Amino acid sequence: MNRFINCMRAVTLAVGSLTAGAGTANIAHAETGWPEKAELTIGFIKLTDMAPLAIAYEKFYFEDEGLYVTLEPQANWRVLLDGLIDGRLDAAHMLAGQPLAATIGYGTQANIITPLSLDLNGNAITVSNDIWSKMLPHLETENGEVKRPVSASALRPVVDQYRQQGMPFNMGMVFPVSTHNYELRYWLAAAGIHPGFYAPHKGDTAGTLSAEVLLSVTPPPQMPATLDAGTILGYSVGEPWNQQAIYRGIGVPVITDYEIWKNNPEKVLGMTEEFARENPNTAVRLVKALLRAGKWLDAENNANREEAARILSRSEYVGADYEVIANSMTGTFEYQKDEVRSVPDFNVFFRHHATYPYYSDAIWYLTQMRRWGQISEPKSDEWYFETAAKVYRPDIYQQAAEDLINEGVLGLEDFPDFATESGFRPTQDEFIDGIPYDGKQPNAYLQSLSIGLKDEIL
Q1: Which residues, other chains included, contact 407 with Cβ-Cβ below 8 Å and sequence gap of 6+?
Q2: pLDDT tier, 144 (very low <50, low <70, confident <90, very high otherwise)
Q3: Residue 122, SS3?
């Protein structure tokens, strides 16, 4: 533990010390100046978890900070990442794994940071109607209803049948370093189904080595059509594309990511390290606007979600039917026709300190990259700590939060106690397999997982 403490002290000094005494009512710090760059283009993918960007725009929170923002939808996550790197985009709604992967050079090398987590949860795993019908005999029931959460053990006999017949079992996810990929792999592996390894040092980036289920990339809005065409048999994606499968009568959402890992981190605000360094006031003011948007989205037990769903349904944002978006955004989730359950935390944008960029969240993503071979060699615990602190920037977040507190817009109770916050959540144990995760012990965590790389190199 002393080694961990010393390492994190060094990392904190490297990225800039956090302000002391922030837990007091009168926070003393230099007021953030006017933005160095006022006109910004921010990229996003058409998913409901881009909501903080839409709300910050519609409620004029960006303009309150002297920012004049253009929100620009992107075709897929690769195009979005390239736009951020080449400067076409100033910031972006990003997969939490993207800034980390870019920083360590997996795929494209670029120094990308995140000062803000945009949300928790928000994804699900959907299978085709045919696969669901094959799973039904293997599902646990209670009082005539499917017992939830659904384990992938019910999928095991179906996968085995396909393999015995010499047919691949194909499933879709949105990007190799997406939460969706890691959640789908976690769900499968928890039931003993191997989702395959990557071996980039051998030029293998397909992620199918030793795989019993083959996972491939499909852009989120194309998921339902690809499922309907039979190209994939199921997928892991954010909303509204799971609910869309029910709406179109082509598939059944099996499990939400809230049930795989309760209150898991999802999307982040990404920008290049160079942009944040050259435009520090702009970066802080952008975070301020999005913090206000997150607060509005979660206010009064989701009271604003109906309005939010109507905004998101517009073509310039998500462009799906209001009813489809509202299915999950308003605190419920429809698993199948006539099975609508209350899931008030399916989308979380502010409560539970959802917006804070926790180092432990970053480290979980890095452990999954190592688990499945995207990181080819074993790494020391210190490497995980240092990498997390290069990318996750609570110093920018804290400046924005303190500004909002001093302005009376938000309160102390809305944020962690910055005087004592370490950047590490307490040990989390609400995973579908019950295996606890402690971000302070990444290698010990990897050793606890039955399927996945540990000390070996493929």
Answers
A1: none
A2: confident
A3: coil
C-alpha distance from residue 427 to each of 59, 360, 381, 431, 436 (Å)? 37, 10, 16, 11, 7
Is the confidence at residue 15, as pLDDT, over 90? no
Q: Say if residues 132 and 234 touch (Cβ distance below 8 Å).
A: no
> What is the reported pLDDT for 30?
81
Cα separation of 179 and 236, whole Å? 9
CA separation, residue 117 to residues 93, 269, 361 (Å): 10, 6, 10
Q: Is residue 300 exposed (0-12), middle (13-18) or buried (19+ Cβ within 10 Å)?
A: exposed
Walk me through the domains of the chain, giving residue ranges and CATH numbers: 2-120+265-320+347-448 (3.40.190.10), 123-260 (3.40.190.10)
Residue 26 has a pLDDT of 55
Q: Three-class SS of residue 391?
A: helix
Tens-digit pLDDT profile for residues 403-417: 999 999 999 999 999
At CA 195, angle to CA 112 and CA 158, rounded to 5? 140
| Helix axes of 322-329 and 305-312: crossing angle, nearest 10 degrees | 140
- Which phi and psi angles does 327 have, rounded to 5°? -50, -40
pTM of the model: 0.94
* CA pair distance 429, 361, nearest whole angstrom: 14
SS3 content of the chain, % helix, strand, coil (to 5): 40, 20, 40
Q: What's the pLDDT score for residue 212?
A: 98
Write the pLDDT tens digit of every residue in 312-367: 999 999 999 999 999 999 999 999 988 999 999 999 999 999 999 999 999 999 99
The DSSP call for residue 2 is H
- Asked whether 238 and 122 are in contact (CB, 8 A), the reply is yes
* 149 cis-preceded (ω within 30 degrees of 0): yes
Pairs from 101-106 (Cβ < 8 Å, separation ≥ 24): 101/176, 101/177, 101/369, 101/374, 103/387, 103/390, 103/391, 104/366, 104/369, 104/375, 104/387, 106/177, 106/200, 106/369, 106/374, 106/375
The tens digit of pLDDT for each residue in 68-101 reads 999 999 999 999 999 999 999 999 999 999 999 9
